[in-house]
Write a structure and sequence with these properties.
Blueprint (H helix, E strand, L loop, with lengths): L10 H5 L19 H14 L6 E4 L2 H4 L7 E18 L10 E18 L5 H12 L3 H4 L2 E8 L2 E8 L14 H8 L3 E2 L2 E2 H14 L5 H18 L4
Parallel strand pairs: 1-5
Antiparallel strand pairs: 1-3, 2-3, 2-4, 4-5, 6-7
Helix pairs in contact: 2-4, 6-8, 7-8
């Protein structure tokens, strides 16, 4: 691990957070995009790329589960943004009874991640794949942005998902202790929030990136899981 320190949050602790949950389907409170709206959005983004190389800035699950084809990747820094567990979920990695939290980019600070360049010959198809994965509802469209990121080969303009989200499903500025309590307990039909954090920290480390807040958070979540599952003496 970077800095010769091992993660406190281990695969064994993450496994304790898993439970079978049924797929509840789309959230009725979040209107879905129609096929026509998906196509129009993909074409809009393609136009906005201005026939320049299309870069995607990945800061979370797109690093370890990209679901797109990339022809190049570079470590990148997004100045003026930082990772934040601020998206409340009652599907996927949470339930209505035990909502979860997922990451977005919030204003302020700096965020180290990975910039991926998409192939030019299937630009529209790749954009559609990304939209289907990242943006299912009308709410998410407002959190798609173009930002400038710095790489070791210069600055590039990159597309980013869930940057500066707003709305009733967003909880900003939560203390890490409160986030840790949620992540240690929430699980949905695709997995747990603890797994999401674990895989993100693990794969960032493989790219030589250590996010100070996420590193502290994984330690807090590990303690929470141990406390929940500690056998009575």
């Amino acid at each position: 691990m970077t800095g010769n320190r091992r993660m406190s949050l281990t695969a064994e602790l993450v496994a304790l957070c898993f439970r079978e949950e049924r797929d509840l389907g789309p959230d009725p409170h979040r209107p879905l995009l129609s096929d026509a709206e998906f196509d129009a959005l993909a074409e809009r983004i393609s136009r906005e790329s201005k026939q320049q190389p299309l870069w995607i800035f990945a800061y979370g699950s797109l690093i370890w589960k990209p679901d797109f084809d990339a022809v190049e990747s570079r470590r990148a820094i997004a100045q003026g943004w930082h990772r934040s567990f601020c998206l409340r979920l009652n599907r996927w990695r949470g339930t209505p009874e035990q909502p979860g939290l997922m990451m977005a980019l919030d204003r302020g600070g700096r965020c180290a991640g990975v910039a991926y360049r998409l192939p030019d010959d299937d630009r529209l198809g790749q954009i559609r794949r990304l939209l289907r994965r990242e943006i299912g509802s009308c709410e998410g469209v407002k959190a798609i942005r173009w930002i400038t990121v710095e790489t070791d080969q210069g600055y590039v303009r990159a597309l980013v998902f869930w940057a500066g989200p707003k709305g009733e499903h967003v909880s900003l500025k939560l203390p890490l202790s409160a986030v840790a309590r949620v992540l240690a307990r929430a699980c949905g039909h695709i997995g747990s929030c603890a797994e999401y954090l674990y895989l993100t920290v693990l794969h960032l480390d493989q790219h030589g990136i250590r996010d100070r807040n996420l590193w502290q958070l994984q330690e807090l979540v590990a303690c929470e899981i141990q406390s929940i599952h500690r056998s009575p003496s």
